[in-house]
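Troubleshooting log. The previous structure file for this entry was overwritten by mistake, so regenerating from the original sequence record. Sequence copied from the archived sheet and checked twice against the printout by T.R.
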Amino acid sequence: MRNGIINNNGINNKQNNAIHTLLRAAERIGIYLAIAAVLTFLLHILLPIHVHAEEASKVDVTLSATSGGDLSKLKDASTDSTVAFSASDEITVTSTQPMQGLYIKWKNPPTGWSLIVDGAETKCGENGFLHEYVELPTGCTSCKLRMDNSISMCDLFAYGEGDLPRDVQRWEPALEKADFLVFSTHADDEILFLGGVLVEYAGVQNLGVQLVYMTNYWDAQIVREHEKLDGIWECGVKNYPVVGPFPDNYAKDYEAGIKVYNQDEVTAYMTEQIRRFQPLVVVTQDVNGEYGHGGHQVLAHAIMDAVDHSMEESFCPESVATYGTYDVPKTYLHLYSENKIRMDLRQPLDGFGGRTALEVAADAYKKHVSQQWCWFYVSDDYQYSCADFGMYRTTVGADTGIDMMENLTSYEEQARIEAERLEQERLEEEKRRKEEQERIEAEKKAQEEIQIKEETKKKNVGKVFAIIGIVIGSIVLLCVAFIGFLLIRRKIEMERRRKRKAERLRRRRMQEQGLQSSGQRSSSGSSGQRSRSGSSHGSSGQRNSGQRSSGQHSSGQRKAVNRNETNHKRRK
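Regenerated output below.
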């Protein structure tokens, strides 16, 4: 019984421990979830969240024209059907949904038209793009298109909000300076034979690739003008191509080619394009015309002649006046037998959804719907491979790899380097000016300190002179005072001497008066004696003796007075 109780208690303890363990685990999970929620919230606040907008779709629009007529052909997505408009005709586009832009395909390049939204008018079509995309103000649901001249339109579509589809072409004008100038005889040659170059350098490396076509189709299969735009846009080309003035004439070989085309005219035109775009690299077709096409050969010979002489003023001088001369650094010909390179067109490309350059070029060729009856195709492993080229001419050295841009710096990179150089120069100039300003301020401060020291020195000198003046003045005053004192003392001394002298004179007079009185008395006594006749002789002798002694005493006094006066004169 006791064992049963113990067993039950053991079981209960194990159950309790298990429950506690589960509770602790649940508590920890709850804490972890709370921390995760907090971190997620903070990440949403602190970090930008990149959300790809949905792809914009076509908006259903209502089209009407002041000229009347059926405009439904503008919605059929076919370049074969068109609607003609006269000058001043207006097309009104309305939608129940906001439109972010209009995508228009013209039958011929436009020369100008006006977009009117809420009374505001914008000039469009001045670039002559056959396929033209025009942005609309946010929230726009109605607009008008006014024609400046007679023109025909193939398609007109409106797109709502979101990322525009890849096939909506937003062309940029032709380049001013091209990294690559690619010459093609016909629409589709640029894909079949040069498509790898377009995809790699325009689509992948995003370099400035400018296409120039020798021939046009304005008077024949206009659809091929549309197809060439669709094809090169698929390859990643963004700058609108240049279309030459020559018609598409078939020639089975070069001799036939120079009969249907003037070789000098073709060479002059291609030289003008080279001087205009100043390319770093020129790429064109096979000098043997791939499969022997005479037109291809005419173009290749024109390019070879042009790059050999475009730096000479005497060569095709008509374009020199407009663009000057130019020397192309590198020129490649399709299937050229010298200085060969073979492009790698089989690597998946992130910018093209993982497709290879070969696949992109193949898809681009499919845009040439009118040419799909031909036996040609895009490939890198048959005799017309779009991966095989040879360097015909170089001014920057031989290739060591398969990059046509080897030993070259793109114009964009040059611009960046130049901008950095200018910025560095600006910073250095700013630093120099700052240092110069600091130097000037330091010199100014030093000059001010020198000036202050000089002024202080002048003040100190002034103080010294003032002190010296005070000292000299004091000395002069002391001297004057001393001299005055001496003069006063002398005056007092002279006054004393004068008084003593006067006193001596007075005493002398008194003595003289006394002597005179004494003489008178003696004279009076002797007269009495004589009158008495009988004075004794002894008495008379005594008086005479007394008179002599008195005379001697008076003489001694006078000598003493004379000595005093002599000593006084000596002192003076």
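The radius of gyration is 65 Å. Archived copy saved in two places this time.
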